[in-house]
Write a structure and sequence with these properties.
Number of strands: 11
Distance between the termini: 23 Å
Order of helices and strands: EEEEEEEEEEHE
């Protein structure tokens, strides 16, 4: 689950809500590709455009936004590990969904080209206050991946079963 929360894009308030998020068909059980230790990731629905990602005992509230083609942006509700009061933050991660596989990329603020509306760079993280700015940053980041300018391999999860609720 730490892979999911390694994103360096965040916001203090959710930028994806029931109104702005997309409905997706990611529900099911996924297994990490290439990992020696078996670890399943379960995605289930939790309301209008709301999902829960579970790995073992860990659970994360999630929403997704379809950006273009098979590219999405995931929003995870998490805790700010640097704050002592366990303040809630929202973390973002670009991902691709292709043929039953989820390719999850770690959004590195240093690899995020340009400046975008509502974006602030601080301590290696990009914080956002604007969904439009976040979407523009995600599309620019995806463009760099597609051009081969970002060589980091994504975490790949393969769907092994479908869960219907």
């Amino acid at each position: 689950m730490a892979c999911l929360l390694s994103a360096c894009w965040l916001s203090e308030k959710p930028l994806l809500t029931a109104k702005t998020a997309s409905g997706v068909d990611f529900t099911g059980t996924y297994r990490a590709l290439g990992e020696e230790e078996r670890s399943d990731l379960v995605i289930s629905t939790r309301g209008k455009h709301a999902y829960e990602v579970r790995q073992g005992e860990e659970k994360i509230s999630t929403r997704y936004l379809k950006l273009r083609g098979d590219w999405y942006l995931a929003q995870y509700k998490g805790k700010d590990e640097e704050e002592r009061d366990d303040e809630v933050v929202y973390l973002y991660q670009p991902m691709r969904a292709v043929s039953g596989r989820l390719y999850m990329y770690s959004a590195d603020c240093d690899d995020t080209p340009g400046e975008f509306r509502g974006m602030k760079r601080e301590k290696g993280a990009c914080s956002f206050t604007s969904l439009d700015g976040l979407k523009a940053a995600a599309l620019a980041f995806i463009g760099r991946i597609e051009k081969g300018e970002i060589a980091d391999d994504p975490q790949v999860w393969v769907k092994v079963s479908v869960t219907r609720h």
